[in-house]
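Entry 12.
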Amino acid sequence: MKFEGIYTPVITPHGDDGNIDHDGFAAMVDYLVTSGVHGIIVGGSTGEYYAQSLEERAELIRAAKEVIGGRTSLIVGTGAIRQEDSIRMAETAATIGADAILVGSPPYSVPTERENALNALAIDRAADLPIMLYNYPGRMCVNMGEEFLDRVGRSRNFCAIKESSGDINRVHLLARDYPHIQMSCGMDDQALEFFAWGARSWVCGGSNFLPAEHIALYRACAVEGNFDKGRRIMSAMMPLMRVLEQGGKFIQCIKHGCEMAGFHAGPPRPPLKALNKDDKRQLEQVVRVLKRTVAEIEAGA
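Predicted 3D structure (tokens):
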């Protein structure tokens, strides 16, 4: 499978009681598909999978597949502490006809590279689908290093990696030594650098509410090869990146951004809380300027 373009880890809308708003979820998925994103990820951390039961996660996977049909790619997140739970999500993905699965390191257990690779290979066997790895040592406390990559590389299914380490040397390593594993940007403020080093896709939470702007950067860099234009778009997006990453309020910002775009997102599930008024106002101002600036760049101003 070729991973090309913008892949959105879709949010999970909630009512005030914390229950999933299934109609709101369907509306978000349909909006993203019609906006032209190249794939939908269900069960990512932006979708708050860690606060959901396995039954809820399976319901969302099936709902997304029904809405998407064959209009774009569906990728299913398999993240979990227990291997059995990851395998169950992988099996669900295979059963409903997902296009690929997302496989990260199990949190908290801190496996060795060999143990982590064996865990990923077990998930692979359960689904036999194309796999995008998810390297996020800041959250999982382990890095998918060279031993890991060499071990999982024995399976043809491991064909991409979402790199979220923040270490630019990892980008160099993947581009130079693992060209057979497609590199996908997982660090928003480094998107330009990823594209310069040959990445063809970007997994970005902000595309939940700014799909056109994220697609514009991808198109400028990866399709047109116009890095002068790409730098201008990236410069316009940097204030958003800073707001999203400050103070550990990423999911809250994404959900408020969706509300700004006219969709019901609701609050995140505990222990997270919605943004306060000052945080909302800051995000709203940044988004207004970003949208205006990118529109001017796209218009050739």
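Annotation: The first helix runs from residue 22 to 35. The chain has a mean pLDDT of 97.
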